[in-house]
Amino acid sequence: MHHDLVAALDIGGTKIAGALVDGDGALFARVLRPTPAQESGERVMAAVSEVLDHLAASPLWPRVDAVGIGSAGPVDARNGTVSPVNIPGWRDHPLVDGVRRSTGTLPVTLVGDGVAMTAAEHLVGAARGHRSALCLVVSTGVGGGLVLDGRLHPGPTGNAGHIGHISVALDGESCPCGARGCVERLASGTAIARHAHAGGWRPRPGQDAGAAGVAAAAREGDPVATAAYTRAARALAAAISATAALVEIEVAVIGGGVAGAGEALFAPLRTALEDFATLSFVRGLTVVPAATGTDAGLIGAAAASRTLLRQDG
């Protein structure tokens, strides 16, 4: 029998997803549970265990040789703990130990969700074939991950590439992380909507009041909505250019809900990159939308597990 599948978990503030994933990123026996994010840490862990029990009941389970977890962060891969901002019951929660209670002796790998998405994009998405890439997840927050010298680079704790907390406005508004002017305070979907509302934009009846509604208005030429996306695009361009100057990336891949805005985001982003990415070795950088969609977390948790076990082994 082949031992060629990874049991993958994708854990976020709204859903806990699981699947058995092969080396090409194909998903089997997938399962989804809502995250009881406002309940106790034990209740959230019980939901994770239910997902694992569902996977273990699959006839394919005997082919599983590892477990890969991508979790909302911050995560601490060294200690196997997670403290997701949007799951208050989990603070330094021993997630890896909890997973091991369900999965026995299988090796377990933990990375942040931005690193998982990056692993997915490098395996089967828009970063495939590139030796160096930055991948960003722009949604309620802003996360990311790096591929350097052809390999996923999660860093010692599994958080490397967390671009949302690069400061791009030194006198900007304070961020819950403790710093000022973080990318996340300017470019997340939450920030885009907040800025548009502050400027007087209002959704039409029945229209989305969040970043998607702002994007629709920007596409129709609404100046306040356009300004909110331009501001977000400049923050992203500054952080992407800073990353490129530090580690020489070839491509920046942008996923997450806000990337769904399409040209409302990418047009001002390309313009802003011309302002920021001016050094000779940064100028060739391209910015492209992610290709793996909602399955990125699962594909990436498995891909990261394979990569990291190979590097450790």
From TrEMBL:
List the Pfam families hit by this protein, alphabetically. ROK (PF00480)
Which parts pass through the membrane?
none
Residues in a coiled coil are: none
The superkingdom listed in its UniProt entry is Bacteria
SUPFAM superfamilies cross-referenced by the UniProt entry:
Actin-like ATPase domain
Q: Which family does it belong to?
A: Belongs to the ROK (NagC/XylR) family.
Q: What is this protein called?
A: ROK family protein
Q: What is the source species?
A: Streptomyces hazeniae
Question: Where is the organism placed in the taxonomic lineage, from the top?
Answer: Bacteria, Bacillati, Actinomycetota, Actinomycetes, Kitasatosporales
